[in-house]
Amino acid sequence: MRPFVSFKNVSHEYGADKDKSVKALSDVNFDIAKHEFVAVVGPSGCGKSTLLRLLSGLLIPTSGGVEIFGHRITEPRDEIGIVFQKPTLLPWLNIRENVVFPSRHKRGRVSRQEYERAEELIKSVGLKDFAECMPEELSGGMQQRVGIARALLMDPEILIMDEPFSALDALTREEMGFELLQIWNERPKTVLFITHSISEAVLLSDRVLIMSPRPGTLVEEINVELPRPRSSQTIRHPKFNEYTDQIRQHIYHREEAKIA
Ligand SMILES: Nc1ncnc2c1ncn2[C@@H]1O[C@H](COP(=O)(O)OP(=O)(O)OP(=O)(O)O)[C@@H](O)[C@H]1O
């Protein structure tokens, strides 16, 4: 099957044209199938966010290339929605206007269909009664839900998520993970999800990519064959701990081998 997203021999060096450069990624190769949910884990500074910036087209690799359906990415594209660690909502706009903001920003206007779509998305992230509220009136979890609705406004094929739930408390985080899976189930997307949490990666994804310390490269891929739909019961599945242990070993063994 033809891959939907392909990282081909991707290396990236920040400041490559200056005296002081940082090699963030080295020869990264992987494919993602359409509608696959892929999580990326790895030590801090290994280049996870750099991977996302490259897929979003905000950054072009110093060598190799990132392709969507065989087309090399050379600039930001509409078929990609991004959810950041902090939702960065515009404080002077209400929730509805924040959700339609990508369209206003891009075209200078918002169509009736887009307002209808925004209403639908606001409802599907559980904020039906909050469309008129200002961001400051919402909790952190609710604000992140707005960030997810905003990323889905243009109905992107690809959803890029950079530690989207890391600023939330443990309970809200777990709840948001399952809500995300429900949205993904209703509106299938190809997802690249960065997290520091091994259990979150296993709980949500079809496949976990494990990266080495900087310069980051792919050291292992784990196919997570846990039944869907996933729920809080999934954590009790006998294979759940097997997967998390396997990932931990890949991350920490390398660290230990380096120290020894
Ligand atoms: N704009 C930049 N200029 C120079 N170096 C950068 C820049 N952005 C990131 N880096 C460096 O590149 C490396 C990879 O950064 P990146 O943010 O991709 O890692 P990460 O795995 O997402 O980190 P974390 O898990 O801590 O968020 C780090 O050493 C970082 O300091």
UniProtKB/TrEMBL annotation:
<dbReference type="InterPro" id="IPR003593">
    <property type="entry name" value="AAA+_ATPase"/>
</dbReference>
<feature type="domain" description="ABC transporter">
    <location>
        <begin position="5"/>
        <end position="238"/>
    </location>
</feature>
<keyword id="KW-0547">Nucleotide-binding</keyword>
<dbReference type="InterPro" id="IPR050166">
    <property type="entry name" value="ABC_transporter_ATP-bind"/>
</dbReference>
<dbReference type="GO" id="GO:0005524">
    <property type="term" value="F:ATP binding"/>
</dbReference>
<protein>
    <submittedName>
        <fullName>NitT/TauT family transport system ATP-binding protein</fullName>
    </submittedName>
</protein>
<dbReference type="InterPro" id="IPR017871">
    <property type="entry name" value="ABC_transporter-like_CS"/>
</dbReference>
<dbReference type="Pfam" id="PF00005">
    <property type="entry name" value="ABC_tran"/>
</dbReference>
<keyword id="KW-0067">ATP-binding</keyword>
<comment type="similarity">
    <text>Belongs to the ABC transporter superfamily.</text>
</comment>
<dbReference type="GO" id="GO:0016887">
    <property type="term" value="F:ATP hydrolysis activity"/>
</dbReference>
<dbReference type="InterPro" id="IPR027417">
    <property type="entry name" value="P-loop_NTPase"/>
</dbReference>
<dbReference type="InterPro" id="IPR003439">
    <property type="entry name" value="ABC_transporter-like_ATP-bd"/>
</dbReference>
<keyword id="KW-0813">Transport</keyword>
